């Protein structure tokens, strides 16, 4: 008599394990997120600090070109011109820039140490003063003069100036 061998496909069916969902004991309690431990401070070696300082040095000394909102290249610009343009709202973190050492046009936020060079404390204060004491009052005056030309979204209190800088 021939022995009957089981084929490899004829394995017994396994039951799937179903995870049970834990029911909350008190449904009226508000959800409180779990507190996470703060991340430890990044420790840079002496070599890393030297590299960062070298990047800052060359970024600050470089001559920059930028593309305005119509994609027209402007420049050459020194760092003080870039700061002035930032205060006036001509450039921001999404503006394309090019300088020596870059292969192609890049957004300002992608060029290492360029944003900290541009957004110094003086530039931040100047931008805040200009936004709160020059732009907002002028826009509010224009809104009061022409209320029929405003859109429904603007009437709901959505201010375009709040998202400019």
From TrEMBL:
InterPro entries: GYF_2, TIC56. One of its GO terms (biological process) is protein import into chloroplast stroma. GO terms for cellular component: chloroplast inner membrane. Pfam families: GYF_2. Residues 64-114 form the GYF domain. Residues 14-24 have a biased composition (Basic residues). Residues 25-40 have a biased composition (Basic and acidic residues). Residues 1-40 are annotated as: Disordered. This is GYF domain-containing protein. The lineage of its organism: Eukaryota, Viridiplantae, Chlorophyta, core chlorophytes, Trebouxiophyceae.
